[in-house]
Design goal:
Elements: H1 2-8, E1 15-20, H2 22-25, H3 34-46, E2 50-55, H4 58-66, H5 74-95, E3 100-106, H6 108-112, H7 114-129, E4 132-138, H8 145-148, H9 153-163, E5 167-172, E6 177-178, E7 186-187, E8 189-190, E9 201-202, H10 213-223, E10 229-234, H11 240-245, E11 252-254
Parallel strand pairs: 1-2, 1-5, 2-4, 3-4, 5-10, 8-11
Antiparallel strand pairs: 6-7, 6-9, 10-11
Helix pairs in contact: 4-5, 9-10
């Protein structure tokens, strides 16, 4: 009953942050997953909401172009991100044909600074008011936090808190959070990071991604500072954003007290 009541409120969400993980953006051969991107973008274009995108994938795309694999060498990863970010934004520009997009490269430090946070919020709200889709990634050239841990999950949570988002949708490669991936024992609703959470798993089959259950729980906690509800779901599911907003039974809802 609780899950049904929560999902029934999703249709009223007006400002939504959609975070695309590396496993959603980059395919198995290191190219942009055009099916996933087109599917998600088409959902966004036809829904009458304010959408902000937080996108991973720059390092994965850069690695593919440069003939590299995921490395522990942070400077090399930064180089791959610098190359891949250009490719990533070009793909979004093409996918959003007919709409304007804007690139924002931010760090969690930017959003933890009160003065800078106000500036970021003002910019995003101005872009949304101009019907421009903000597309955000970590500025990997000056910060390596999300390269090592999070795959932009933490950045997404901070964006939600900064702009007062109603909903955060974290798109990954499985339909939510599970107690056991082998028998698809999906958890539909999590209210706090208690002892049970240590037994659950979230899929991350991409070798390029660094996100996992810990970063998603932390993202949800941060986002809840502005009463944002978080949903973790499969990015390859057709019409996934519309299905979630319509209250259909997809993904895992995270309603976790803030930090």
């Amino acid at each position: 009953m609780v899950v049904f009541l929560v999902r029934s409120q999703f249709e009223y969400a007006k400002r939504i942050v959609v975070k695309l993980g590396t496993s959603t953006v980059v395919d198995s051969v290191g190219s942009v997953n055009k099916y996933n991107m087109s599917n998600i973008v088409q959902d966004i274009k036809r829904l009458d909401r304010e959408f902000v995108i937080v996108s991973s994938g720059a390092i994965g795309l850069g690695n593919s172009v440069l003939g590299l694999k995921r490395s522990s060498d942070l400077i090399l990863n930064q180089a791959s991100a610098a190359v891949g970010q250009c490719l990533l934004m070009e793909e979004y520009r093409k996918a959003f044909s007919g709409m304007q997009t804007a690139q924002l490269l931010l760090t969690n430090s930017d959003l933890n600074n009160a003065e800078k946070r106000v500036m970021v919020r003002s910019l995003i709200e101005r872009l949304l008011g101009m019907s421009i889709i903000p597309i955000i990634n970590e500025n990997d050239s000056v910060c390596t936090e999300e390269i090592s841990f999070g795959d932009n999950d933490i950045l997404s949570g901070n964006i939600c808190a900064a702009i007062g988002a109603n909903m955060q949708i974290l798109l990954t490669d499985v339909n939510g959070i599970y107690k056991n991936l082998s028998n698809e024992d999906r958890i539909k609703y999590i209210t706090k990071a208690d002892a049970e959470v240590n037994e659950i798993k979230v899929g991350c089959s991409s070798q390029e991604g660094t996100g996992g259950i810990s970063s998603k729980l932390l993202s949800a906690k941060i986002a809840s500072r502005s009463n944002t509800i978080t949903v973790v779901a499969r990015g390859s599911e057709k019409d996934i954003i519309n299905k979630i907003i319509s209250g259909m039974d997809y993904g895992t809802i995270l309603c976790i007290d803030g930090v």
